[in-house]
Amino acid sequence: MTRTIRRFVRAGATSALALSLAITAQAQDEGAAADPAPQEDVEAIVVTGSHIKRKQAFDSVSPIDTVGQAEIQDIGIVNVADLVRNLTFNTGSEFQIDAFTQGGSGGTSQVNLRGLGLGSSLVLLNGRRQTVSSAIANAGDTFVDTNALLPLIAVERIETVKDGAAAIYGTEAVAGVVNFITRDRFEGLEISLNSQFTTRNEDDEHRDIDISAIAGVGNDRGHIMAALSYRDKNEIRTTDRPFRNNQDGKTLSTYGSPGSYISPLGVDLGNGVGQFVPDPDCPTPDAAGVLCLYDFGDNFTLVPEEQRLNIYTTGHYDLADWVTLRGEFGFARNEAQAGASPSFPALDFFQYVVPDTHPANPFGTPVLFRGRVVGDDGGEPGSNRAINSVDDVTYRGVIGLEGEFPDIGIEPVDAFLDTWSWELFYTFSTNRRDGVGSEQSASALVDALRGFGGPDCVQTPTQLPGTGDCFYFNPFASSITASPGDPEFNDPSVIPAMTARQGSKFETTLRTWDGILSGELFDLPWGSPAAAIGFQLRDESFDVARGRDSLNEDLVFNAGGPDADADRDVWAVFGELEIPVFDLDDISIWGDRFTVGDLSLTAAVRHENYERGIDSTDPKLGILWRMGDFFSLRTTWGTSFRAATLFQQEVEATAQNGRLDLLSGSFVFLAETAAPNPDLDPETADTVNAGFTLSPIDDLEIGFDYYYIKYEDLLTVEDGQALLDADFAAFLAGDPLNPNIIRDPITSSPIRIFAQRFNANEVVTDGIDLTLRYTFSPTDLITLGVHSEWSYVRRYDIKLGDGSPTIHAAGNRNDTNFARSIPEWRGNTTLSVFVGDFSANMIIRHISDYKDDENDNDRIDSWTTVDMQFNYQLPGFGQLDQGPLATFGIINIGNQAPPAVDTEPGFDTKVHDPRGRILYFRVTQRF
Length: 927
What we know:
Elements: H1 3-30, E1 45-46, E2 53-54, E3 64-68, H2 69-74, H3 80-85, E4 121-125, E5 128-129, E6 155-161, H4 166-169, E7 176-182, E8 188-198, E9 207-218, E10 222-233, E11 236-237, E12 252-253, E13 260-262, E14 277-278, E15 294-295, E16 301-303, E17 305-320, E18 323-340, E19 353-354, E20 367-370, E21 386-404, H5 411-417, E22 421-440, H6 442-449, H7 478-481, H8 494-498, E23 499-520, E24 530-546, H9 548-551, E25 564-584, E26 587-589, E27 592-594, E28 597-610, E29 615-627, E30 631-642, H10 646-650, E31 653-661, E32 666-675, E33 683-694, E34 700-712, E35 715-717, H11 720-733, E36 741-743, E37 750-759, E38 762-776, E39 782-799, E40 807-808, E41 825-835, E42 838-847, E43 850-852, E44 858-860, E45 863-875, E46 882-891, E47 918-926
Parallel strand pairs: 4-7, 32-37
Antiparallel strand pairs: 1-2, 3-6, 4-5, 6-7, 8-9, 8-47, 9-10, 10-17, 11-16, 12-15, 13-14, 13-20, 17-18, 18-21, 19-20, 21-22, 22-23, 23-24, 24-25, 25-28, 26-27, 28-29, 29-30, 30-33, 31-32, 33-34, 34-38, 35-37, 36-37, 38-39, 39-40, 39-41, 41-42, 42-45, 43-44, 45-46, 46-47
């Protein structure tokens, strides 16, 4: 832990302790407080999407989706990742391990509203920013890890603003804002035990256990709440599911173990001069009998093993009747493990020479080794896989003051300031991600093939290869059956000595000062205009430290890269205004009574400035017309922006992706290196939303929203698959090949891609959101409810540059461009019944079919699953008014497998859930 964090944690702990003692002492004097009694006046609150305090969410001019604690429990959600996964307007997030396209984000979850990118949705906790995760998506996106925010039991509600909000919150709020709001005033003690397990694999069930608790105590001066959760989840492997049958050889590598060989001297090894031959004992040669294949698919993980601890506490204390001290502290730690291939391909095979003096060389002439150091070693597929791990730690703290203005004895001033409130807060958050993975040192492999392998080997002019403490590494299949003493036997120390257990450390930090004034300006007969003004200061930093072999790029497959660190300061000022235009609820025209309703206008503007010369001024305008609780009509227009991240500007990043190369006719798993680009322009967007909410009868609410977003100068990186496809087109046309694609000079198979970060031209997307809520009681004993939400993406059009063709990404998997999978329709419908202490819910989830551009635009089938949940409130016992709430549920009751996709995992990891049918039990007790 750094010195800064230690000081911060110590100060936060001291403040929390002092706050707790003060509250507890006064509670002992006055008696423990019960649940607060209902008040006649509703306290004004800040609704997400505005800094102006209001008394109800219905007053928002922006479309807001709210998921409360009760609804979270009703749909069987036990972690934030599953909650975000099921939002209909969220698509393209990364929730499980997919080593082929998202190797750097395992154990995290993110928001991707409207599919506009992991970094284009702003995530807040109680209205304040959180540092981005130090995990990086393969395309270089940074994001807030929602898994690391807080225990789910501490969430009061989650509010999602579904139109752009940069005028309110600044950069990243392009597609919208997701705000996690906590149960600050919870009192008592609540404990919840949840156990989930799958039913697909009878011998080794996947299980997921979560233990959560929340406690709170307070009085009329203050309150403190603390919550924690611990989650223990075991792994689902690729071999645990039948999805491996859905990929057509996509996990077959031409770099086998044992491998293939070619003569550097032009000697014919059996297939002709200049041709490879497989190992003499190759178990799976290719159809041409040239290369020895290896299927690495059985080694990987679908759902990682995780142990996660989340702690969150918040409290407030009234220092005076006009000022309150508030604080938060959060801690999250996640340890995740995932399987990987036993070793990676040794790509630059021209340096891996097996000399003719090698005791196991069956060819009698020097040969080049094309393969991988470790395979299954004669065991079952996947029996010798490597285990990679990450240790992800997040700290967060908030301290600040808020209040009103005390009377100063000057009546006009006191009257004006009576409606005004203020706040000043400091937020600190940091995330550190330590990762460990296995690979071989390229230089050590070269030495071991020459007879200078082993941990104690010292090369001197007199040291003979393969003698003393120096050993040969035998890459041939003969090593599998050899015994100690045989010349083909690999000494046990040889492979560990050239294996680099690579460690890396990525760390991000965010420090923020926020100040806001909010209140009413003057009185009008039909209402009072309200305003908010404020400022924000942010300091962002990151640090990347890689292992020695990665720094030296001395790895057989992963390209490595340099260490990096950077920081920048950002300042912003903003203002917001709400003006009531009229309020005509009951007027008379020629003797007839009419209800016109009330109309209000909102305006906001924010200027944000980065020390590196980037700045943006973004306005937002809105109109809201309401007719009581019966009808509201809303529309907004605004601009948004997203600045290039420090990672995109400063860090060279390499990801390993699976690609199909039509030029060489091979499927490859290769390194794609994206260069930093300090000259990236910020992304900009115009956003429009228009919608209404209709409540024609009691307890029935119908919502409709249309959104339009024109997103320009998108920050992205060249797509490796698109570059390979363009190279093939150039080959057919007789044009030069792309020099940034490094190819094997013999097979033409690509072995590395150098990609550029750039600003794409634009994305234009629009669509609709539909909601319906209805609750009714056919009898005095029974209450029925229905809640249905649907999102439709009508258009998602991409232009990479001026004059380039338009890519229609809606309804497409988008493997060949930078967009994520975008099914056109997503919907959730919940049917509920309540009978006394018993309740039941049925949740129907639907994702429409879409095209697979990787595989000739084949259709990926639609997917509909049904969940069931049954709840019973047990009677109280002893001093308890209520006993535990017992819940039994089934997720995916029909055990529907995700639709088949001809890709490495066999299904679309960005859209579908591979777990199958899940049974769960939950017991919750309130004390």
